[in-house]
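From the pipeline queue, job 12 of 40. The input is one protein chain; the requested action is below.

Action: predict structure.
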Amino acid sequence: MGIPYLNSDESIILSTHNVLVDAAVSEMILTNGRLLIVDSDSTVSQHKEIPFAAIETVTTMESGSADPAISLAIFTHDLGTRPMQLVFSQQPRSDRTSERDEWAQKIKEQMGLLPAGTAPAYVDFAEDEGEDLKKLIGYKSEGAPAVTEDRNVPVGSGPKRKTSPRSSAPASAALNKNMVIAAGAIIVIILLVAGAAFIYPGFLSAKSSEPQLPVTLVPTPGGPHPTVPTPVLTAEPTPVATAAPEQTPASQPTAITTPQLQTAIPASGVWVQITYDGDYTGSIGSGGRMREVSGTGGRFYQISAASTDIIEVSIQKLDTTGLPMTVEVFNNGVKVSDKTIITPKGTLSMTVDLKTTPVLIATPAVTQ
């Protein structure tokens, strides 16, 4: 791994390794100006730079493998947000919870030092990958060979050394080899994207034509309202008296009708309902106690929270359709907040203060 160059007025606050960032083993460096994430397996010093002005929220949580983690909501170029999980991978009989908490606290402190009125920044993940590829090829945008020039001075470095003219011939040979490798990689990527664009619409239409029967939580009438999950359907279909859903040709995906299940709003407790015809994933919770959720269709999720807590929701669409995804928050059977997005692969983020949020819609009682 190559350590990124630091600015002359930049100092390191924290550094660590063996952190999973989007499933890639990485090393992290926190300075007084940015958060640096360096891919440990990269041979070309591939890294991401996250300015503090591009971070919307910092949340501590646990990953699916029970490792301590930090969830960052990062602004993208369209001023939406993209979740990024920093998982502090643990070895057997080790605990990195305190290290996770220290990183979360330091990041929040640096965000708080930003001057008032600082405009939000954003991170273009696709542009970062393109710049890394340009560095690998060694060419400028005009197509002429690029002369490597360090604009940032590394800590403790001296004057720059001039390249000897005698080394130009080996450098040209290495440059040509890198160009051939990069060009081959680009061609393979283009072929894979074209194949996916041809196959995926058919797969999506076939999947959408099947009725979505999610498991919902329905309160039992009377008593303390315990929740009873609807039984999960087995692989073998059971004959029912309902009419079969109408099959729609794959060429008209907009005409596909998804059967709607009648569900009752739970009368007590704090609940989050996610409604989306495609697949989604994300996290919900309160007071930093987040849980990961994923699924499809319309589902209710209960949150262990008091009526004065702050509810946090971050849900991402996993497909490129423009179908609407809606998230609603209910407190004791009454809707207190809702939000809808249609952006392909977009992320819906909500923060609801149950203590100060006014009631939006009073849910009527379910009639038999």
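Job complete. Residues 138-147+171-210 form one domain.
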